[in-house]
Design a protein that fits this description.
Length: 185
């Protein structure tokens, strides 16, 4: 079967996805280093290490790369939901106002970000956070094949914590792989 003709951006995204797969395999084997190549590295190891250093990382506020974020732990997310007055997630039957009432938060023009994670003892919880921009950037990062986890929100950014997960959510790449979602590399 012939391969479909890719647009230039799709071709570049596919190359980036494959490069991430190669570097993930090297990391799993223990041969990947982002620093100088170890003594005795083969030409293949050096090439894979160079590839890993060159693969684009989509930075976003809260990705843990800024000096002021480096001491904050990351949050393992099963997924996220963005609630906005102008656009609710596909599959949602309620309005923005109804969703806010269900979550017991006031509607706001920027909307809300819902981070589905785990609480004490592994119980599923939803963090209602104000940082919509970081959540949008996290979505974009995941869409480009990245699997970063954001840093823990500041206490002032967490407005509520609700038992259970709120959906329909966009699954994190790790959660999607763990659930065996078909079509993922």
């Amino acid at each position: 079967m012939p391969r479909p003709e890719l647009t230039e951006p799709d071709y570049l995204r596919e190359l980036e996805r494959l490069a991430r797969a190669v570097t993930a395999a090297a990391a799993a084997e223990g041969t990947l280093t982002h620093g100088p190549d170890p003594t005795g590295a083969t030409a293949l190891h050096r090439a894979v290490n160079a590839l890993a250093r060159a693969v684009r990382h989509h930075h976003f506020p809260g990705d843990g790369c800024l000096p002021e974020e480096e001491d904050r732990p990351t949050v393992r997310l099963v997924g996220v939901v963005l609630l906005r007055p102008s656009a609710m997630p596909a599959g949602t039957d309620e309005s923005y106002g109804e969703a806010c009432a269900r979550l017991a938060v006031e509607p706001r023009s920027e909307g809300w970000a819902l981070w589905n994670t785990w609480g004490d003892g592994g119980a599923p919880v939803t963090l209602v956070v104000t940082d919509v921009a970081a959540t949008e950037a996290l979505h974009a990062h995941w869409a480009h094949g990245g699997s970063a986890a954001p840093v823990t929100p500041l206490p002032s950014q967490i407005v509520a914590v609700r038992q259970g997960w709120t959906g329909p959510m966009t699954f994190s790449p790790q959660a999607a792989r763990g659930l065996g979602v078909p079509g993922l590399p």
